Amino acid sequence: MISNLKRTINMFSNEKKVQQALHFLRHDVKHLLKNLDADTKPVWGRMTPQHMLEHLMWALDGSSSSSQLKVANSPTLQKMRPLIRSYVLGSVRLPRNVQLSKTKKDLLPLKNESFEAAKKKLEISIDNALEVFLNNQQFQNNHPFAGPFNSKEWIIFHRKHFIHHFTQFGLLKRRFFV
After folding, report:
1. 99 within a domain of the structure (yes/no)
2. Residue 112: Cβ-neighbour burial (10 angstroms; 0-12, 13-18, 19+)
3. How many domains would you assign to the chain?
4. Which of 24, 46, 55, 125 is the most buried (most CB within 10 A)?
5. Domain that holds residue 112
6. pLDDT tens-digit profile of 36-59?
7. 3-class DSSP state for residue 150?
8. By three-state DSSP, how is residue 141 classified?
9. DSSP class per residue in 63-104
């Protein structure tokens, strides 16, 4: 009986997280992006505003693709995957200045012709990803470090990822609840 209650509470909690994340991605992001300029300096890190927009776009487009993302499969990561998964989907903030590759010292080349074009394309990527996630409840794709995510988990993750980078550029305060 207690395990059923825990499952019900957890299900309700996840549904609430999904609804919060959907609202954030559909409404708040567009409003917050109005406060981001091409010359906004990050609070930490080396990304430019356009790099950040393109990074978020890449994450949205990759996660909602019909092609499965590759999962890093070192023995250490395999053992840590449940912990990584709960961390990535949980309420703990993502750490600052994480470099996922020791070899990438330089920022990736920009793909969009301008900051404004990247901003518009990010909004399109949000709409496209949410359409995939919401219209296919069976959808699943891999998170590169946390393993398979379903649609709801991707929605929750993207909110957390956006909050992390919007905090990086001062669009949100550090105390903003994840």
Report:
1. no
2. middle
3. 1
4. 125
5. 49-94+108-178
6. 999 999 999 999 999 999 999 999
7. strand
8. strand
9. HTSSSPPP----HHHHHHHHHHHHHHHSSSPPPTT--S-TT-
